[in-house]
Amino acid sequence: MRKPRWLAVLAVLASLFLLAAPGETEVRAGGTLATASAPSPALGENIAYNVYLPSGYDRGTGRHPVLYLLHGRGDTMQAWTRVKTVLDDMIRTKRIPPVIAVMPDAPWSERGGWYVDSHYTGTDLPGRPIETALTKDLVAHVDATYRTAPIREARLVGGYSMGGAGALRFALAHQDLFSAAAVLSPAVYTPLPPSDSSTRDYGAFGKGGEKFSEEVYRELNYPALLPKLDADLPVRVFVAVGDDEYANPDPADASHDLDFESAALYNAARRSPAVSAQLRVMDGGHDWTVWEPAFEQAMAELGPGLSVTPPTGLPAPLYGTAGQDWAGGVAAHADGALTIGYAAGGDAVLTRVGGWTRQLATPADERLYGVAALPDGGVLAAGYTKGDLDGRHAGNTTDDAFVARLGADGTVRWITQFGGPGVADRLYGLAAAPDGGAYAVGYTKGALDGANAGDKDAVLARLTPDGEVSWIRQYGGAGEDKAYGVAADASNVYVTGGASAALPGTTGPGGWLAAFTTDGTRKWAATAGGSASDRLNAVAVTTAGLAVATGGVGGDAYTVAYTGQGKQRWQHILATPAADAGAAVVPLAGGEVEVAGHTRGRVDVQAGGADVLTLRLDGRGRQLAAAQLGTARDDGVDPFAEPNLYATATPAGEVAITGLTYGAPKGGTAPGNGDVFLVSTSPADAR
After folding, report:
1. pLDDT by residue (tens digit) across 239-248?
2. Is the model's pLDDT at 211 over the cut of 70?
3. Measured between alpha carbons, how far is 329 from 342 in angstroms, rounded to an integer?
4. What is the mean pLDDT of the chain?
5. Closest CA to 274 of 181, 160, 151, 166
6. In the sheet where 357-360 sits, what is the strand order?
7. Which of 301, 378, 407, 421 gets the highest tally of CB atoms within 10 A of its CB?
8. Total H helices, total E strands in the chain
9. Residue 19 has pLDDT above 80, yes or no
10. Cα separation, 585 vs 568, whole angstroms
């Protein structure tokens, strides 16, 4: 006999929503909620907590990031269970990775412990080491009990009201444990809480028999923590508050309303080099009408950055000085050796890794912008000088372009300096010519090949193997035009750059790619984007004969391929919500290319500010792999957000990348103020 339809429906509902007795597991659609406890030597008692385990946890073997969610004053660990449906939905729709959420109970100091170690000795509310218990004992227990990753990149702490203050405290005071914090309507007050604040009533900030100590409060509050933060352990902080928070009627305390205090917190935090902060003002007051949607927004921003894998760092050593240094190029030789170029202390420096170092220097400043290998083991280098680098430009005080050739032993064979008198001329790109000479590109404000068409004109120069300037071509329009990259094959010379107005053969501003014959006749030109901020930074010729250029268009990493006749074959765009750009392109076997650039978004595991981006594309522009690596600070870009990164293929099939970093390498130290890294990557490095 069939059961009535309504009984079948009830059976299904019961299987999805089992009512749980205390201490049992509560199963609902999606993840599960359970109660548990952790031993705490610091407290001398157990810490009770609820735990959310994502759907499929019991059947899986993988590790998960962990959220630690702190309740407000007077509340219990049950308060946070209401976000289960938010977590279920965000995990199901892949807006965040499958996470574990731990929701500890904090009953101490009559539920007003503020998540700090209290030194109040009064018998009414004896102080307890709550901060130590939760950050040491609870975290250790969770890592030993569940499939977590015991790294800071896999931990986020969140809280509302008193819990928001606790989350902020934990994230700033324990950077080694937490990489992110969701700080909702935080009960933080600066410099001291108002006279009617409950922070004064529970002994959390007490000392001895004194229930509230101004000295203790200042010591534990965020203004004292921010200056002490380690910028190599970046913390992401999401602050949210309602627009209908309690308005204190006392004008003297109006600045302590939590909407005021949240804005003050955000503006202080965002100025720390160790913190990236966001602020949201929500519609509502001091309750879950704000905290639940704010939690969802916080997780949407912070959750994707959680990772059970630590970021890929940059290797030691770094090259440079205690002053400002810049990357200037990398060349790979047939014997496997690498030569890198950089600017250090205002001089151009070339180093054969593991061998010689040579400075190209005058009392004025020099910069390198390209290094190319030669068949005899020597190198070409290009850049600009404000002095007399070749001994034939006495009295020069403006930027002059130069190209130099060094032998395999580092001996300078020749230096050629050229430019218009009294104006700026710079080289930004270099390629070896088949005969041992060079193609160099940059810009001039003068007239090196007829009249200047505008503010700056792009230039392409051909030098002979002996260092003589064979010819120079200017390419410019009415605006500011610069060339950044150059590559050549037997019949074409390809040049990339950026223009603020239309160039001859194009219809508007943006990045551009132009093809010239080997005698300097322009054949065709194409543009990318349509803004003066768009630019193509580099170009290479693939084994299939395509000219592949890369750069930044519309804030995205843009790569495009053309035939020698100017027909576009394919384009590829890598876009994150943040800024991305290609800076170098390396031809590989089978027509593939490796693009190196930078991203401020998340392609793989974020390391810090701007990370180095690597992107492998096949011969038809299809993405094969992408990865990012770097330090906690900016890598691959300079202080003006312009790329400072170069790459080349090695005989071993790897890609050598050099660039600017403001961080510290793994297992090493940084001279400071911007240094130069060198790293080799292979297809297996891309996750």
Report:
1. 999 999 999 8
2. yes
3. 7
4. 94
5. 181
6. 325-332, 338-344, 347-352, 357-360
7. 378
8. 10, 38
9. no
10. 17
